[in-house]
Request: fold
Amino acid sequence: MKNKEPLILVVVVAFSLLVYLLVETYAHSVMHKHVDSQNFEYKDLPPVTKTGDIRNGKVLVTGAGACIGCHSIESEGIAANIDVVSAAAIYGVNPPDLSDVGVLYETKFLANLIKNPTHALNVEHKFDTSKGQMHPMVAFYGAGGDIDQEVADMVAYLKSIAISIDDLTPKMAYENACGRCHSMAYESWTEIGQTPKFKNKINELAYEIKTLKYQDSLKAYMGKLPPDLSMYYRSRSESFLSTFVEDPQSHLKGTAMPRVGVTAEVFDKLYEHMADSADTKRAERDAIGKNVMIYIIIFAIFAFLWKKQVWRDLK
Ligand code: HEC
Ligand code: HEC
Reply:
């Protein structure tokens, strides 16, 4: 009888190649769609063409712009009108503090957000004004002058009060841009803030009830509770996270998560905060790596000297 083994081998190899090259490639392209990064430039939004006037911007933000009707600006001593749980009951989510939005969000994005929140946030599929579905952040319709000038003024003011990018910590970036929707249990962060250390059970339970109430409002607003981000640094690649944050629709068509509008530099900080939560031993590992290199270099020098010593008399 003829040897059939080569034939069997050919069949197995052919099928393996078929599965690997066609089926796997296809499944990968469907389940891990490749999305090109836009480098957080928000090219679809029109640029700001006017030069803003900071003084007038302040008048508008704290007056006709109505911003402080919903938002606090703590660095300017403007506190929130209501607590976070009541705010979420009204708006679905707590409107973020405006102290540092001038550094967190891209300039063009901020201007477009003020004029048309639904469009800038890329949630037009959820809020159809013709059907009376209003976004909880009302659009600014102008204070009587040139609306583009007024918007530029407000943006200039918000940029003038924000801290510098160097002083913005990864944690601050996370709390303002993501923290109102995403808890981070490993960092003791809930959607309503940093969980305090409780001395007694009653206060702890009261805090838990507040968190649950807030989450109920958020669930109703978003359709589901946004996931805890403690471990996303490990479960997703950097390229997935950056392109997802840049435009959630690119990966999850129809998702309720808004485009948040952060700059590329701020994304790096967010990513670092996610790493701080998911990979706490990073710094230690890097430090050990350095020590090991130093050890190896010193050892190599001694080994070389020892070799010379041993061979000296044998030449
Ligand atoms: C009627 C209430 C209301 C008013 C008025 C309002 N906002 Fe908002 N704002 C919100 C809510 C609610 C959110 C959160 C929306 C969300 O996360 O889906 C928000 C979100 C924001 C954000 C964060 C957007 C992001 O990219 O995550 C900024 C910045 C902001 N508002 C600035 C302003 C400025 C500046 C003004 C004044 C021109 C203003 N808002 C007026 C309710 C309001
Ligand atoms: C206004 C609320 C809101 C804000 C602000 C928000 N998210 Fe989300 N996020 C959501 C919701 C809702 C989902 C669930 C999406 C879904 O399953 O459709 C989600 C999902 C995610 C996911 C999971 C995606 C996946 O693969 O399943 C990641 C990662 C994420 N968000 C990161 C962020 C980061 C980082 C920020 C801050 C820059 C942020 N989000 C800001 C509401 C929000």
Remarks:
- The two ends are 67 Å apart (CA to CA).
- The mean pLDDT is 94.
- The CA atoms of residues 288 and 294 lie 10 Å apart.
